Amino acid sequence: MSEGTMERMFKLKENKTNVRTELIAGLTTFVTMAYVLVVVPDILSASGIPIYAALAATCISSFVACLANGFYSNYPFALAPGMGLVAFFSFAVVGQMGIPWQQALGLVFISGIIFILLSVTNVREAILDSIPMNLKQAITVGIGIFLAFLGLKNAGWVEPNPATFVNLANLTEPSAMLAAIGFVIIIVLSIRGVVGAFLIGIALTTIIGIPLGVTQAPVGIVSLEPLAALGQTAFQLDVMGSLKVGFIALIFSFTFANMFDTMGTLIGVATRANMLDENGRLPNARKPLLVDAAATSFGALLGTSTVTTYLESASGVAAGGRTGLTAVVVGVLFGIALFFAPILTIVPSAATAPVLIVVGVMMAEAALKIEFSDFTEAVPAFLTIIMMPLTFNIANGFAFGFISYTLVKVAAGRFKEVSPIMYILSGLFLLSFAL
Fold first, then answer.
1. What are the pLDDT digits (tens) for 159-174?
2. Checking DSSP bridges between strand 165-168 and strand 79-81, what pairing results, if any?
3. Are the C-beta atoms of 336 and 37 separated by less than 8 Å?
4. Are residues 19 and 135 in the same domain?
């Protein structure tokens, strides 16, 4: 594909970017989220899904979803199986409830169909547009803190504590020291305006990790085992078996959690990239929402849990990505990863963790735009921000923010400021907690 073709297809000049910047942004996003190549298959294997089949399903579903989003919506949002919902799939639905993974995939497939119907009818876009601007800014801040907290955890700087919930970890551990080195490198490169600061920082940190014993040498270069194993899960889902009355609550849980995780990611990343219009709306939001919906069902057909828009897209946006070319680059790299997984998975989490922390810092800037002087705006905004990292769940931040927004506005006699959709969503969130 020539540079001229890419210019016409992705409207690079109109979006104040260029091919080089988009390529770097795509590489940055991919390397930042490359951990899914290891973590997602590992978690899915706990449900009984063969690990190589899970890796193939992860790579192929991400490849197709990213390309679809890049070419169709022209937004720099990358997609892959969502970590939270993958864990819910394996440990709660299959592990605790004892539902076979084939039926669990059927539940994911059905939730994807529901997503598609909601997206085609513009219901999801209407919901996105109905969120007050202060809550949108709060969502951005909350996601930033969530990303930073995830980065601190992956860096080995904080650890769980039964008495204080979380405390400072042992910073003399090799991985923690490597993350500190990477953090300094990325900060210095960013301050100096070096193009591709995140990607260069990740690469240098990975190399430095070799003598520290954190970066492990690859066991090989090329592997065809994942592709050969895909037949063990592809089209093995049991849709008819998942159509049971007792599973309605599970379908609702998959649908609700993914819908608001996706919305939160779109709002947060789009805000960081200054893509929202003067009314706080994402132009043509229906397109990335529709791709996200279709990707969920497609991933279930292959053998993986809910495919969703990824928070790590913010790292590519921070690196300058503004068009679908960024997403296409990510997709192509996921396709390549199917064959070169042994090489691509050597990047340690300590090398990508600093990027998440720095992106969190950048996204926290949105807090300056929140009207904290208005108590009816401050309370829901604060709860939205604080509940995301503390519950390790974006959807929970939405829930507390929406419910509290409706309650405080009604209590203040300003119920007319609450849109009908917000009333409905608040009621649905309350219902989800009850279920």
1. 999 999 999 999 999 9
2. unpaired
3. no
4. yes
